[in-house]
Task: structure prediction
Amino acid sequence: MVPSSFVMLDAFPLTPNGKIDRKALPAPTKVIVPAEATDHVAATNAIEETIADVWKSLLGVERVGLRDNIFDLGVNSLLTVQANQRLSALLDRKIALVAMFRYPTVEALAAHLTEGQASEDTASRRAQDRDARKKDAADRRRELRSAKR
Result:
């Protein structure tokens, strides 16, 4: 765990009792170092645009590139939870919070979600096929029973 910012002081401000005066400490300033204009890669599909828009709104920045690490841009765990809730609502699907930490770029998270969507579709198709096979087997059993009577 590394602090997101450091404040250099010549000496700590002290109270009359010799303790650190926390109220007199300067507030750290949030400095976001923008990537070079040539490094910016824009979103290429709807999922990437949605993810980038959520991060832009939460961070209050003009743009978030595909390969920008969100934690380098100043995201913390609380903002990640907010982004997770917004993305889940916008994409109309549950997104694992751990995925937000595991895939810290727009590009990586979009690839994970696209891959996850494909595996969900495959699982859904398998379940439908299994249900159809069960129904066919039940129909055959009924036909056999009625034929024996």
